[in-house]
Amino acid sequence: MNTNTETHSSQKHTTFYPLRTYLELYVLLIRTSIKSSMQYKLNFFLGSFLAAFIQIAEFLMIAIVLHRFGAIQGWNIYEVGYLFSIMTLSKTVYRSIANEVHHLEKYLVSGDMDQLLTRPLPVLFTLLPQRFRIMLGEWLQGGFVFGWSIHGMMNSGQIGWIAVPQSLFVILTGAVLLFSIGLATATIGFWTTRISELQTFTEDAAGTAARFPLSLYPKWLAGMLLFVLPVGLVNYVPALYILRGEWGPWIFLIILLAAIGFLTLSLRFWKFGMTKYQSTGS
């Protein structure tokens, strides 16, 4: 088995190009990945619409319960739909751009990580566009629920049009937060190799929990979803201001700083984890 020294040697050959060159290469890699996924167009579109239908049906189950009982902890059906859609769209942005971060385990197990190390580009940059996903089903589902929720609250006079650009900002910062959580979780794989069970907790379970108001949960769990795994900053915290007028517009600055802070920490953790990677020798 190769040692860390060999891994470091491979990393030393990384070439640094101007930012414009990186962007051009990134777009080229994404185009190549999309062409590959579109080889079977019927399968792609059918799978996308089925995925959207299944996920919309998932929200409809929640809507039926809310319609029967009226509200959850004071949150009405449109507000819960808003939380649901913001989380869905933020996760869709993250998984569209950096889907393979979530699937790093297969690179570590199969030895494909070694191939990324031999390329004259940073490993993370090379990993991001691999098997780029359009995720049409998730976009349709999230967009439908978002539009329906916003429309319902506008008709009732609860919010105005300013909520739309505010929500777009929240979706983008939310995608950064979810990416940061995913990257930090994936980095642990440099020590453990297997990370799928951990990802189920840090990404899937936490994201599902945050689709509902955090006020539903015990204080210790709500605190963890705000400060340890900050999924509550993706939708719940901004929704308190956008939908209910709590706190103030400064909350957007807090969310932006949190997104930058968690992204910086996760990138540094990734860089440190790379120094601990041991090649499979394949």
Automatic annotation (TrEMBL):
Keywords: Membrane, Transmembrane, Transmembrane helix. It comes from the Bacteria. The keyword Transmembrane helix applies. The keyword Transmembrane helix applies. It holds the Pfam family ABC2_membrane_6. The chain crosses the membrane at residues 44-66, 139-162, 168-191, 220-243, 249-270. InterPro entries: ABC-2_transporter-like. This is ABC-2 family transporter protein. It comes from Paenibacillus polygoni.
